Amino acid sequence: MVRIAQTVDASHVRKRLTRRESRAATRAKLIESAGEVFAERGFYGASVEEITDRAGFSRGAFYSNFASREDLFLAVLDAYLDVELRALADASMRETTSPGALLEFLQSRAVRRSSEGRQLTLLWAEFWLHVVRHPEFAPKLAARQKAGRSAIARVITSQCDQFGFAPPCPPEHLASVMMAVDDGLVMQEFLDADALPDDLRARAALMFFRGMAAESAELAASTSREQPPPKAAERADTDRH
């Protein structure tokens, strides 16, 4: 019995979390619970009490990790964006060796947006209205928007390089347009889901890239036509070499 007790005690010591690890675990649990409550109640309907109760902590645990409900919402948003942006970057890298990987990712994302992703879009819209009324939070939300835009811009640049054409305007501007189209289609789905095919957002992204390729080709052809023919002396010099 003594030996067993010693083994249990040793195991307990090995599994004991450091203060930093315990704080990180508490924070992660609060973020997880907050994501569920925000999805169910919305930003305005979610209370600190319900979030902490679901996580199994006190209000003190909440305020030792987050300055406000807005701060917690942004942490939930960060967790979601981290997963999405990592997946997007991975799909873009796989596209170089496995053509079609990016489209496959976009199609799977379109399906997922019909559930938890669509809910996040609503939460983003709700928090956006909150920020409009409380502009002191605008820089924080704008930073998250910029992170998403930059990630999409990198994918656009990579795709243009892979297929050998230059983007018709700065990739960040193109990314902003793609984000606006995607979010707008989600909002339309909430009002009339039957009016839009399930894969429309994925196909819209594909049409976007095809349109860029066509415009780039047209611009290159136009530039070539506008260039004057070489002078006779230049042609002769070129023939000698």
Would you tell me the structural class of the helices and strands?
A: mainly alpha
E-strand count: 0
Distance between the termini: 95 Å
- The helical percent reads over 70%
What about the largest sheet? none
CATH topology of the largest domain: Tetracycline Repressor, domain 2
Give the name of the CATH architecture of the largest domain.
Answer: Orthogonal Bundle
Q: Could you list the spans in which at least 5 consecutive residues all have pLDDT below 50? A: 1-14
CATH class annotation of the largest domain: Mainly Alpha
Mean pLDDT: 80
**Helix/strand order:** HHHHHHHHHH
Tell me the β content: under 5%
Give the SSE layout.
Elements: H1 2-15, H2 19-45, H3 48-55, H4 59-63, H5 69-95, H6 101-133, H7 138-163, H8 171-191, H9 200-226, H10 232-240
Explain this structure:
The chain folds into 2 domains: 20-66, Orthogonal Bundle (Arc Repressor Mutant, subunit A), CATH 1.10.10.60; 74-227, Tetracycline Repressor, domain 2 (Orthogonal Bundle), CATH 1.10.357.10. Helix content is 82%, strand content 0%. It is elongated, with a radius of gyration of 26 Å. The protein has helices at residues 2-15, 19-45, 48-55, 59-63, 69-95, 101-133, 138-163, 171-191, 200-226, 232-240. Mean pLDDT is 80; it is low at 1-14. It is an all-alpha fold. The termini are far apart. Helix 6 crosses helix 8 (171-191). It has 10 helices and no strands.
Give a brief rundown of this model:
The chain is mainly α and 241 residues long. The protein has ten helices and no strands. The protein has two domains: 47 residues, Orthogonal Bundle (Arc Repressor Mutant, subunit A), CATH 1.10.10.60; 154 residues, Tetracycline Repressor, domain 2 (Orthogonal Bundle), CATH 1.10.357.
